[in-house]
Specification:
256 residues; Rossmann fold; 12 helices; 8 strands
Length: 256
Amino acid sequence: MKIAVVGKGGVGKTTIAGTLARLLARDGFNVLAVDADPNLNLASSIGIPRELSEKLIPLSENIELIKSRTQVSFGGLISFTPKVDDIVDRFGVVGPDGVKLLVMGTVRTGGSGCLCPENAFLRALLSHLILSRKDIVVLDMVAGLEHLGRGTARGVDIMLCIVEPSVKAVETARRVYKLAREIEVRNIAVVGNKVTSEEDREFIRKNLKNLEILGFVPFDISVVKADMLGVALIDYNPSSPAVKGIVQLKTKLLRF
């Protein structure tokens, strides 16, 4: 199963992605978590110690690696089919419950159509992770879906758009839905996060009535406290309301 988690910054998608990865690993699955968000916070949400995560260099910033894999020896040409099948074994870091983390990063310069070596490498890597890996892959992605081409997107089993009860969050979800449809993602669903009341749930339902809502995760002060301490929510308070909500979400995902 390949799960892409997207949403506006600050809605809690990384906490949900990291907790999902841990829960799935506890069920006995081989889980690869991929951090493709510029903020690079997935390590702490999984529970990888700060002293280790601070040493991780995003693959998008590993210029020597990218150059060696994408540079063609003549004419300054770029290879768009670089070798990437060894990247997880070389650069993946094993965290709690056996979750393997790959810090991919993203290209910070140029547009989504940039033909730079970094983009060529990341697109090829993401395609390999989605289409060739046998693991469950949980992708923590930016909302723009820059690295997902049409062929790769068809391999995503479900795209989860995380929203909080706010106008900006639902506007982002609408844009994500449009982009995902354009690149032929098969299943797109919404997860309401930081929900405090039935009014919040109704706000999300009303504003995203054309989208499937897979579930709601309640607002939980444990999320805030875990973040302040730099630890994973599932380690800080494994029986918290948010964790219980994500457990329910995991159960629904396994039906896809």
